[in-house]
Amino acid sequence: MGLVPEEAVKELQASMDQVEEPLKKTFQNVHQGYVTQTLVRFLKAREWNPSKAHKMLVDCLNWRVQNDIDNILSRPIIPPDLYRAVRDSQLIGLSGYSREGLPVFAIGAGLSTLDKASVHYYVQSHIQINEYRDRVILPSASKKHGRPITKCIKVLDMTGLKLSALNQIKLLTIISSIDDLNYPEKTETYYVVNTPYIFSACWKVVKPLLQERTKRKVQVLPGCGREELLKIMDYSSLPHFCKKEGSGSSKHSGRGSENCYSLDHPFHQQLYSYINQQARLRESVEPIKQGSFHVDFPEPPAEGEEASIAKTLESELQKFHNGNGVSDLKIIDD
């Protein structure tokens, strides 16, 4: 008989109390004062098995130390033109907050081309947004609401899906693996909107391959999802592509301050300023170097849920391509 959650948390807490520096220090950047909630996230990711959750968490902490993740927010992507190219091809932004205080991240899965820089820059950018979310946005939201807020909501826009996504499966799998191994259970719900027929067809194939806890988090909404999303957030927090039916996630739609992908949006202005400010603080220790911040990332697994999903997607997309001549498809991006 398995341990009940409370007992599992206590056992994991006892084992984590034994870790020494530098793991203890980087663990502080992970839990941000919310130790129990962090232990619960890793336990959920390992089906409440304290031993497996302990290994996962220690592996995560070692990965952080070995890759200097604690300092990644002081390593800007330079020059600015390169950073803009990354932002224009990896569409993500913070559109607002749910009524419960959870940050709402918008992701332009359909129009993210991920082809303007090397894999390392996209991985660096993704981790920086994760770390900024976990170290700045979530603690601020927790303080504002007077309770722990440790998760976010993601709204994925499938406008503009393209078959060229086949070329990005490896990169998306790498990013997904980094999240699964080092940032588990950080997303409350994934809302998928503006889905073309071909996504719906692939979703029917992929859904049975997902774990139950993953499936429960994904909600495919009709149209732009506005009516459903307004049940959990105010109009002002809707991603720009949900405010008007058929508006899509065009990086050029709306004014800069409204388009949450734009560098003119407050979220990106604050993120950019924060990273550059942290970089200036480090300049006295070491000069800022051009080039990507190389992070060791897992090779896409040879077996398991992710590999099975990627393989099935590739197979199904190829069928659409060969059988129907379809040329507009892109994969869901987490």
UniProtKB/TrEMBL annotation:
SMART domains with a match to the protein in the record: CRAL_TRIO_N, SEC14
Pfam families xref list: CRAL_TRIO (PF00650), CRAL_TRIO_N (PF03765)
InterPro entries per record: CRAL-TRIO_dom, CRAL-TRIO_dom_sf, CRAL/TRIO_N_dom, CRAL/TRIO_N_dom_sf
Domain of life: Eukaryota
Domain annotation CRAL-TRIO: ranges: 79-239
Name this protein carries in UniProt: CRAL-TRIO domain-containing protein
Organism listed in the record: Arachis hypogaea
